[in-house]
Amino acid sequence: MVTFSSLIAAFSVFLIGHSLSTQTGLPLYVGASGLILAVIVFLAMRISSFLRIFIAMYGLGFLFLATLGLAGSVGILPESIAALLPPTFMASAAVVFAAVVYGVSFLTPIRHVTAIADPYFDTKDPSTKNAEIPFTWLGRGEAQVGKRLVGLLVAINFLQVALQVRLNLFSRDLFNALGDKNAEAFWFQLLWVFVPIAAIWISLAVYELFVDQCVKLRWRRWLTERIYGRWLDGDTHYRLSFAGEATDNPDQRIQTDVSNFIIVTMRLTINLLQQAALLVSFIVILWQLSRDFVFPGLGIEIPGLLVWAVLAYAVIGTWLTHVIGKPLIGLNFSRERVEADFRFSLARLREYPEQIALLKGEAAERARLDRTFGAIIGNTLQILSRNMKLTTFTAGYGQAQVVFPYLLGAPSYFLGKITLGAFQQTAGAFSRVADALNFFIDQYRTIAEYKATLDRLTTFNGALASVEDSRHQREIELQTSASGGIEVDDLQLGIPTGRTIVSADGFRLKPGEATLIGGPSGCGKTTLFRALAGIWPFAKGTIKLPKNARVMLLPQKPYIPLGTLTGAIAYPAHDHTYTPEQIRDVLTAVGLGRLIEDIERPDNWSQRLSGGEQQRLAMARALLEKPDWLLLDEATSALDEQSQADIYRTVLAALPNTTVISIGHRASLVNFHKRHVQMQKREDGLFHPTEAAGARA
Ligand SMILES: Nc1ncnc2c1ncn2[C@@H]1O[C@H](COP(=O)(O)OP(=O)(O)OP(=O)(O)O)[C@@H](O)[C@H]1O
């Protein structure tokens, strides 16, 4: 593949070199650009697939232009076409663009962009996954469709540049016709040159919008699904919650940052591409027009005066913009954080209205909201002040740009060296070149915001990847036990800060032997349960579970999803996994019979049900699920003694094949367990599960 591409590259270099040297008579320039191109095209095969789309499109453009150039050089091309698309300009534009793209692909932020962008353009997924979004017919694979659509956008932009070049020639001819008072030529230019170009321009703009939106939608869907797929894979989302700042507000990253990333990546790359093409096209026009310009005041001729002037103007402008605008990058990063903090404070308020109302915590919450929102205001004011400084500079810079070419060109015009048409054309070309060079100045704010989005996605991606890696190098060995029970050996359990809190060696749980685990608060009972359920990442040692054992853990505060009661009871199984009769039976069994009427009513049940009712609902889940091992972590703590006894009796009777292991502080719980284990602190400062007296009657 690489060899074939290199052959094509070599062939196109030959054609371009030939066409350029015959047209420009500058063999050194042609040879050098040909050499650069050959190296670039060869190396381009190795860079990211997203950037390769742009290079490939330019390769095609090259071939097309080289063919035109060759045809032109042997005289078989009508002059009007050669004037419309001067191959020298386009070829130079392509070389500059490819060099820029290849050069910047080594910069760290660009590597971060391609690391997030590339997987979509490399995916093996079929395009039918996005069947409801237009353009599925473009290819079988989603990556193919994505690449072709981006390629199509590049081609449309390429055509728009060609049209702008043609409009510049039109402006020259129109003003010359005006200067010569040639009405016929004037009307011809207006009706037969401008009108068709305008019609093509409008159609292209509409089609570009359509293609652009479709590719963004396809890409966003793929990337969003992939990220939340990875986030939910196994217990990644749980482990990620220990990763600290790198993963704050994952909801915002998945919803807002992914979308912003795609929108701005497309806008910046396509825009940069178009500006690069415009830059080289109009620089050559400007050079030709100001070949013998006279320096104002001095009367000396400086070849290409306007090109040097515009380059110096833009370099100074870009540098000053960066100096003035640089703090915006940090300020935008902070903005994401303070906005997220404020949103989170509001979400907490929504989650705990009752607790806050009971504690009369409104004033404290208000103070917290004032503080977090105050940070937003402070940050926005800082951004505003910086933006005002930047705008003062860029607006002044833009205004100066309007008169600058007239100042420089006037002496040559008054000396009669250039026509009015050429003078006007020069001013147009100058402003196009300046606009292209002003890319960074114009986009500075967008780039500063984009950097914050990019950093948030990059850190999230990195955290996901490290959790995925660590899953393969767990320090805990989960094995199959031969005895049919749970066997724990050499187990050490820690907490995220690195402290070890529990040690268990030779700890056995036999099937059918209901066991109660007790111990002081904070000694690590819940942590031991998390390890037995296989989700606690800060663990070392061996845990053996019976083959295919189904372990269910009911925590003190159960999770109740939004939706119907039927869905909440069936969770995590599908809403309609169980029949209405089954749901009704278990609700009655756990003492929630009064809710039977409401089982299909969607509600925020976690706020409507009392703590005890929520614990009953979790028990109903266990009755339906019938696990082999049921770990109850203070799962009846919100119930009165009598209700707790009733529930235990119900569960033990309904699930004869389930082994119940409970954590609890109430002495009465001993009655429902055959064995009693106590977490005891030993000399090593760690809590060990230790046999205690106490058995079920
Ligand atoms: N995510 C975490 N980050 C930091 N520390 C944690 C985390 N989870 C638990 N711990 C700490 O680990 C210790 C053991 O917690 P665990 O919940 O296992 O105790 P417990 O014995 O179940 O307590 P209780 O009887 O009060 O429910 C506690 O000191 C707790 O603060």
Automatic annotation (TrEMBL):
CDD domains attached to this UniProt entry: ABCD_peroxisomal_ALDP
For this protein, the record's InterPro entries field holds: AAA+_ATPase, ABC1_TM_dom, ABC1_TM_sf, ABC_transporter-like_ATP-bd, ABC_transporter-like_CS, ABC_transporter_sub-D, P-loop_NTPase
Pfam families linked to this entry:
ABC_membrane_2, ABC_tran
Report the subcellular localization. Cell membrane
Query: Which stretches make up the ABC transmembrane type-1 domain?
Result: 152-449
Tell me the membrane topology, using the record's own terms.
Multi-pass membrane protein
Q: Where is it mostly found?
A: membrane
- State the SMART domains in the record: AAA
Describe the location of the ABC transporter domain by residue ranges.
486-692
Q: Name one GO molecular function term.
A: ABC-type transporter activity
Membrane-crossing ranges are 29-47, 54-77, 89-107, 149-167, 187-211, 272-290, 302-325
Q: Could you name the Gene Ontology cellular component terms for this entry?
A: plasma membrane
Record keywords: ATP-binding, Membrane, Nucleotide-binding, Transmembrane, Transmembrane helix, Transport
Q: What does this protein do?
A: Involved in beta-(1-->2)glucan export. Transmembrane domains (TMD) form a pore in the inner membrane and the ATP-binding domain (NBD) is responsible for energy generation.
Q: Which family does it belong to?
A: Belongs to the ABC transporter superfamily.
Q: What is this protein called?
A: Vitamin B12 transport ATP-binding protein BacA
Species in which this protein is naturally found: Variibacter gotjawalensis
